[in-house]
Amino acid sequence: MIEDATTFRSKEKVLGDLSKALQFSIESLEANRKGQLSKEQAKKLAGRCFQPVILTWLFAVTPFLAWTHITSTRQQISFLAALPVLIGQLTHVKDLFETQGKMGGVMMLGSILISLAIAVILAFRISLALCADVLDRKVTMQEGRVIAREEQINRPNGRDPIEKYFFCLRYLTMPVNLAAYRAIEAGSIYLVYLLPRSELLVSIEPKLEDTPEELAAQAAASNFSRGASSSTRVDNDTNLNPSADPSEDQVPVQPTSLP
Question: What would the CATH number be for the domain defined by 1-37+138-227?
Fold first, then answer.
């Protein structure tokens, strides 16, 4: 059964659907409203941010540690003494093949080069901006009309196209999943919470109508402003319209006699 796309949903229902799709809790939303990243969000993003850093370090260092241990075992020397020996062999490939043999030299060089290549690939996945945002734990808010956009990338050989989904707010284009794409009421006004450097979407909520308390405060402020302007006009009218009887405002002049 196909769901009717025109079915009305309240803003609370839209918020609930978005929170499930983007996996943020009401507690996280409250923290975002205060300009902070919640502990739950920080923990989730820390794994996403620092996992490539840890894997890069492991692939870059592990082969050197392994071959240093093998060298120290073969030559019966300490681990620290074997490290400069290994570096010397790697910088002099001819001596390496003489010491390790062709097969051993190829295995050593191949394993180190492959591991370093993987480390370089993983290094390109590291987002320094995201890591800085996770450490800073600050959140910014943008308000405006959000448009949901779908993008399809066709693939050869008749395979299914690659579908990508985005939320667009002015100059911002935020990748989202299919569930979030279906959950949003496109074209409505939303409060979007982002990380300031990486511009990563952490939560979003529809802008609710003004509460009765806010409307009463706005009415009181408007009435006060009108009252102040009215009193000002009365004062101005008093200053601009003098008394109709000039004798009330003028001082009588005593006649003087001529000598």
Answer: 2.40.50.660
